[in-house]
Write a structure and sequence with these properties.
The complex is a heterodimer of chains A (291) and B (158). With 291 residues, chain A is α+β, with helices and mostly antiparallel strands. The mean pLDDT of chain A is 96. Chain B has 5 helices and 5 strands. The longest helix of chain B has 16 residues. At the A-B interface, helix 2 and helix 6 of A face strand 4 of B.
Chain lengths: 291, 158
């Protein structure tokens, strides 16, 4: 690693120029909790590390467009400690809380969890269910993309060469909305999701679900938005019948692998269970949330 | 070879060291600054033996690059006792025999202090969840948790 260079650009333009100029031999460094391990094991050998934490706004959570802009280098602990964000998006915070230890959450970032593109990343299904949009800067300018379109496969994103995720935008929150993320792991802490499920829903004054988004993690090569699962909830009171339809839709959308953490059959079964439990928590939160 | 000249604050003292890009903060602390109280366990952020405070945040120093410490404030186990006077957590770890081989102890003490600074009156469950990132292969954790709770009681009474 003695040849590896380090740059801490102070502007986004400088970071994009460095990344684009390195032609694939540079890596973006945010929290480093995945990157440093990949370097240590020799899986990657970057020639240049581009530390984005010194770029203004990257580490900030700000109210914007009626919702929130969360800088790509905001750490898990920063997000957990932000009381108003946690009140608005408890499901996103559920996901973040499950990422590693306190130590790891002190460094690990939302942008990094997204761009590392693990199919089992805990914050990603919750962000997808929330309708979060990634702000992306690149050599051809800035663009925005729904989070579910950024992840492309294990370790793969849809980002073009030289592009950097700069922030995540969380939309405005109607009254009577709630979200939740749950995962199955053999133990309660410090583990990797066998199945993850996120549900975000909004109720009307009569308690009927008017909007919903459902996302699954660790049951396909990337986190999935499952519109059929959301459709099972919309127009219902999220009652037992709707939950049955939700579970069936979630299982139908899952394309899991067999591995040491869970068989394909187990993951299919568990996806249905976890998505129903997440929906029940989201429902309870939506009922309590009067805006 | 790219060597970075890093200026930082460690336990309140201004320090300078040279490091390569790939060197971790843990390696810089141990090999360049000779502060060997911070231990390497796994090197992948799983065991917490290398826990330090970085600008007031509990982190694994094996997952931080030395060059990232530029201008930052770091607190290690070497700064925990004041002269000969042990921190209440250190005293309670001795009284409760909360360590055997001792490799995990500096990281656990740093992590436990960070908990008590945020939450002076944690429940046993809160202590166990907070310390989930610190592995101990000797004690079975019970004595560690007891020592942290005893230190918290003493610090609240002080």
């Amino acid at each position: 690693m003695s040849e590896m260079r380090y740059a801490a650009p102070k502007t986004l333009a400088a970071a994009v120029a460095l990344l684009a100029g390195a032609q694939g031999r540079a890596r973006v460094l945010a929290g480093g909790t995945d990157l440093l391990i990949q370097m240590r094991t020799g899986r990657i050998k970057p020639e240049l590390l581009i530390d984005i934490k010194g770029i203004p706004g990257m580490g900030e959570i700000v109210a914007e467009r009626g919702g929130y802009r969360v800088g790509a280098a905001v750490t898990g602990m920063q997000l957990i400690e932000h009381a108003d964000f946690a009140k608005r998006w408890p499901g996103v915070v559920d996901g973040v809380r499950l990422i590693g230890s306190i130590q790891v959450k002190g460094r690990a970032t939302l942008g990094g969890n997204l761009c590392n593109a693990s199919p089992a990343a805990d914050s990603v299904p919750a962000l997808i269910a929330a309708g979060a949009v990634a702000c992306i800067a690149g050599p051809d300018g800035a663009r925005e993309a729904a989070v579910e379109t950024v992840v492309a496969g294990p370790g793969k994103t849809s980002l073009a060469a030289g592009e950097i995720v700069t922030a995540l935008l969380l939309p405005p929150r109607p009254a009577h909305s709630g979200d939740a993320y749950l995962r199955f792991t053999p133990r309660s802490e410090m583990d990797i999701a066998v199945v993850g499920a996120a549900v975000n829903l909004t109720l009307d004054a009569q308690g009927i679900c008017t909007q919903a988004r459902v996302a699954l993690g660790a049951v396909a090569s990337r986190a999935l938005l499952v519109p059929e699962a959301a459709a099972a909830l919309i127009g219902t009171r999220v009652d037992a019948g709707a939950l049955g339809q939700l579970a069936a839709a979630a299982r139908a959308a899952s394309r899991p692998i067999d591995d040491k953490r869970g068989s394909r059959e187990f993951r299919l079964s568990t996806a249905g269970v976890m998505v129903c439990r997440a929906a029940e928590i989201a429902l309870e939160r939506a009922r309590r949330n009067d805006g | 070879m790219a060597r970075h000249h890093v200026k930082a604050t460690v336990n309140g003292d201004a320090v300078e060291f040279l490091c390569e890009t790939g060197q971790t903060l843990l390696e810089a602390l141990r090999d360049e600054l000779h502060l060997t109280g911070t231990k390497e366990g796994c090197g992948t952020g799983d065991c917490g033996a290398c826990s330090v405070m970085l600008d007031g945040r509990l982190v694994c120093s094996c997952l931080v690059l030395g060059v990232e410490a530029e201008g930052r404030s770091i607190e290690t186990i070497e700064g925990m006792a004041v002269g000969e006077e042990l921190h209440p957590l250190q005293q309670k770890f001795l009284e409760h025999a909360a360590l055997q081989c001792g490799i995990c102890t500096p990281g656990i003490l740093i992590a436990a202090r960070a908990l008590l600074e945020r939450n002076p009156d944690p429940t046993e469950s809160e202590v166990r969840f907070w310390l989930a990132g610190n592995l101990c292969r000797c004690t079975g954790y019970h004595k560690i948790v007891e020592a942290v709770l005893a230190a918290a009681r003493e610090m609240r009474a002080a």
